[in-house]
Amino acid sequence: MFGVTVNSLAVIVGCGLGLLLGKAVPQRVGKLVMQGFGLVILYIAFSGALAGQNTLVLILSIAFGAAIGELLDLDGKLNRFASRLERRFSKGEQQGGLAEAFVTTTIIMCTGALAVIGPLQAGLNGDNSLIYAKTAIDFIAAIIFSTTMGIGVGFTAISLFVYQGFFAVAGGLLTPVLSEYAIAEITCAGSVLLIGLGLNMLGVTKLKIMNLLPAIFMPMLLCLVIKA
Fold it and tell me: Is 116 exposed, middle or buried (0-12, 13-18, 19+ CB in 10 A)?
């Protein structure tokens, strides 16, 4: 759990630095940085999406994941939680800013192969190398996002700690399920969600990505019955 804790603290520190820098960054610059970051996310996402080995697993993962997420209303629950944080901490900031920051950065930092494989590896053999690599990425992301989106980025450390902590603690139990095949399909599904997120950030779509998030867990089961 040490690596997971360091990752979460890096987000808080990065957010603090971003808030300091944000006061000196013109709004038009921050907007362009956000759009550029959306393009970077698309690049990363398209690269990861090619990791998939079985299109059927991706199709079923998205279908089942979307159904579960919509029935559970994950997007609504997360937004309501973020809104409560916003009412308490925004202190007159632009309405919706904290909630948007929390939801957006939670999806970015918790979706993808590193967010699963890193803590899993740390939980299995104490190797934090992947977690530290992800920490560097999240630290930079927190600085960039907080310059334009505010304090909500810092609260992502909570969801990041819980999400990655789960995989770190349960690493031993998940090992038989997460074969190389399953990991490839998890990477593919997570990357497809990142494509949607990147398009949202560019203003092209308004997808409820949180309601699709269960899709990244589906390959753990589907890969047991659908062979590569």
Answer: buried
Is this structure's pTM higher than 0.85?
no
Are 175 and 18 in contact by the 8 Å Cβ rule? The answer is no
Length of the chain: 228
Classify residue 126 by its DSSP letter: -
Tokens of 173: 């139990």
Sequence-separated contacts (24+) of 114-118 with Cβ below 8 Å: 115/163, 115/164, 115/167, 115/190, 116/167, 116/178, 116/183, 116/186, 116/190, 116/216, 117/183, 118/3, 118/164
Contact 188, 47 (CB under 8 A): no
CA 43 to chain centre: 15
Say which DSSP state 112 is in.
Answer: S
Determine the Cα–Cα distance for residues 108 and 179; give it in Å rounded to an integer: 24
- Residue 39: pLDDT over 80: yes
3-class DSSP assignment, residue 2: helix
